[in-house]
Design brief:
329 residues; mainly beta; Hypothetical upf0131 protein ytfp; 2 domains; 22 strands; 36% strand
Length: 329
């Protein structure tokens, strides 16, 4: 996390609502809220494969491009993707920027920005998304695989991809040059021609991403499960077949006819993963149904699939832990 000119180390902690601990102690969400910033559930993953993960670049964006608020950058490993040198140089400094391209069988270390909606204005200015002509487009990647440092799978991450000819991969003797294989000082002297494309399967995004759009699935463990009394609230938004799954944690009886989820290393909470056709449309109604006693957060299942779920926040007094093997009925 970078805030107030300082960088703070993050480490995974699945027992915290944010999933991350700051400087070895304290929930990242608490630190973000203390700064008046969006918690992790109010941010979306943007694959940062070039200089945007560099603390000095982040400081420059604050000074020169209006970036504000805490910046959350997570280490990530990609497969099937590669950062390659672009066909053209940047006007501002004469450097050759990186662009993303499909790269079968290749693995690289990059980063994932967990960007708040208001931070996209600065990112768009840096990437020339709104320039005339635009240099990069914002898209959702269907190519390759991305995992953050905690092993969580970041499916359909957002990424800025080359759009203008000068931001297509540079081909030297017919092949792209990977940034990991050649330093910037040498890259700016390369000679070649632009590729016809980047080989990526990625849908262009218009406007500012909505945090509710990622991921497009929810883990339900109580009355919202298929076959339970409140499934009718979720069923109209479901797509595909719900699959049985287990989330590390415990559930308690609230005494009011519905269960309370707590994150822990407990025996595991049985439930279902439900894919959503349009999560942005689904969650206002689901949030209202769950009410203020619950908080919607993102969690990683044992297979590291990321889902939304509802965490009990109304306290533990009077709760009775349900037995292992509880099925929600």
């Amino acid at each position: 996390m970078q805030v107030d000119g300082l960088s703070h180390a993050l480490c995974p902690d699945s027992g915290l609502p944010s999933g991350w601990r700051v400087n070895g102690s304290g929930d990242l969400d608490d630190r973000l809220v203390a700064h008046g910033a969006a918690p992790m559930a109010g941010r979306v993953p943007v694959l940062a494969y070039g200089s945007n993960r560099n603390p000095s670049k982040i400081s420059w964006m604050r000074a020169e491009r209006g970036l504000s608020g805490p910046v959350i950058v997570l280490r990530a490993r990609t497969s099937g993707l590669g950062a390659v040198w672009a066909a053209g140089l940047r006007v501002v400094d004469g450097q050759r920027p990186a662009v993303l391209a499909a790269a079968h069988g290749r693995e690289e270390e990059h980063a994932v920005w967990m960007a708040a909606p208001e931070q996209f204005a600065a990112l768009d200015r840096v990437e020339g998304r709104a320039a005339d002509p635009p240099r990069y487009r914002l898209a959702r990647l269907r190519t390759g695989a991305v995992r953050t440092a905690d092993g969580a799978v970041v499916d359909l991450p957002y990424a800025y991809l080359g759009l203008h000819e000068i931001r297509l991969p540079l081909l030297v003797d017919g092949v792209p040059v990977f940034c990991d294989d050649l330093a910037q000082g040498e890259a700016k002297h390369l000679r070649g021609e632009p590729a016809s494309g980047d080989g990526l399967d990625a849908g262009t995004v218009t406007g500012t991403p909505h945090p509710d759009a990622w991921p497009a699935r929810v883990f339900v463990y109580g009355l919202l499960m298929p076959g339970q009394p409140s499934w009718s609230h979720l069923e109209p938004h479901a797509t595909g077949t719900p699959r049985a799954a287990t989330l590390p944690g415990t559930v308690s009886d609230t005494g009011s006819g519905y269960p309370a989820l707590a994150l822990s290393e407990g025996p595991g909470v049985p439930g279902y993963v439900v894919e959503l056709a349009d999560p942005v449309a689904a969650f206002p109604g689901l949030d209202a149904y769950e009410g203020p006693e619950y908080r919607r957060i993102r969690v990683a299942l044992p297979d590291r699939t990321v889902c939304w779920t509802y965490l009990w926040t109304a306290g533990s007094v009077g709760l009775t832990t349900l037995p292992r093997g509880w099925t929600g009925r």
